[in-house]
Amino acid sequence: MSEEISKQRNPRAFRIFPRFRRSRRSRRVPARQNYDKDCYYDYPIKDGLLCYPKCKAGYNNYGQGPVCWAKCPPRTTNIGFSCQKHTYGRGVGKPLSSCKSKMEKNGLLCYPKCKKGYYGVGPVCWQKCKSGYTDDGALCRKPLHVYGRNTKSCPWYNKCGLFGSTCGKKCKKGYVNDGCTCRQPLHVYAKKTYGRGVGVPLSCGSKEEQSGALCYPPCKSGYYGVGPLCWSHCSGETTDTGANCLRESYGRGWGKSLSCFSFSRDNLKGADISEIVSFMKGAKDQVLTKATCLGLWEKSRKTMNYLRSFAKCTSSWHTMVFSISGTVSVLLSDGVEIGIAVDLKKDKAVCYEQTCKGFNLDASVGIAVNYGWFRSLEDIPGKATVVFGGVEIPNTEKGVSFASVINSDNEYIGTLGTRGLGVGLSPLPFDVGGASCNTPKNRIIEFTPLL
Description:
- The protein has helices at residues 2-7, 11-16, 265-269, 273-282, 290-307; strands at residues 45-47, 50-52, 67-69, 76-78, 82-85, 87-89, 94-95, 103-106, 109-112, 118-121, 124-127, 134-135, 139-142, 145-148, 176-177, 181-184, 187-190, 193-195, 200-201, 209-211, 214-216, 223-226, 229-232, 238-240, 244-247, 249-251, 256-257, 319-343, 348-374, 382-392, 399-407, 412-424, 430-439, 444-447.
- It is mainly β and 451 residues long.
- It has three domains: 31-94 and 212-262, no CATH class; 103-201, no CATH class; 273-447, Rhodococcus equi virulence-associated protein (Lipocalin), CATH 2.40.128.
- A five-stranded antiparallel β-barrel has the order 29-32-31-30-33.
- α4 runs antiparallel to α5 (290-307).
């Protein structure tokens, strides 16, 4: 009977410990978050026309292309490879004049206070003279002093009271009766002394801080003082170089094409790069003219049509850019670029000329063909910073690279792909660098493109 009962299900136990039932929802793959819809799960960051892995904590994800740059600390301004510190003035400063607690100023030094009954002169504490004594430096002196004694009560035969019973007024305490006079004897004794150390330099007050030989008001939170200026701190992945915070960086690969763009070699056949380079070499006039612009446009129309295939990936950007640049570099680079920018929505175009100065890891002479997208035609004129990286055949300038363009307001305004031609001395299979470029408004010519 007991065995049958043990085999029966205990309804109370079932209520207390209900059977766990798996939910189909627990097997559902978590939704992919924090990545662009045109990119991939492992390459979630869309930057220009490519997708990149996320940068690690403390680094910027966007506007950097293949390089992750450290974020600028608070109270600094991003100026490209470094962050400029913010500063403000705190006055001209005051001379050192204070001593710490339980110390006293003597000359230009601070000493421990002397014990009671002593006073300090430099590193020595000297005993104070007793009342009635004159301080003669290392000695205390009570001077000789004589005054006439009142003897009116003395008889005529003992006028000064020298004989017999004493008569007349008594002398003051500490004086000797000499008859008709009272005399204070001369008394001299040496002071006692002890040393109190060599002293320490003067310092600033409790509500001041020292910088050099002057005292200044303390800087507000987040700043430190150097002389009359307060400077913001460097922090995070940056290195303090004085007026700036140098940003740390590392590479994150060359990225993947956007998932919305299907790339094939047939696209490149429409871009007859050699024909364009030959046109630029044969141009007799070195001055940017409308004729030069139209000639470059005719030679680059095939390439522009190739670039239009990116349009579905750049719904907010609609300005195509195509340019030819020539550069001479020995670590420091100097180059000139002539290019065309076309607004597909407005059917407007400009031809422009810009100059660039920067650096890279090579000594070379070469020509590069650049193609890509800008945010708008209004971003073409003015100053901009270009950061690039790519691969190339060692000891040549033949290679492919990608560049990000940032304007003077630290806004990401463009992305470019580059095909290089030329000769170089670097044995490295890659090249990275940056440049500061300027496109003056007087070097821009507007024209109407025929797409």
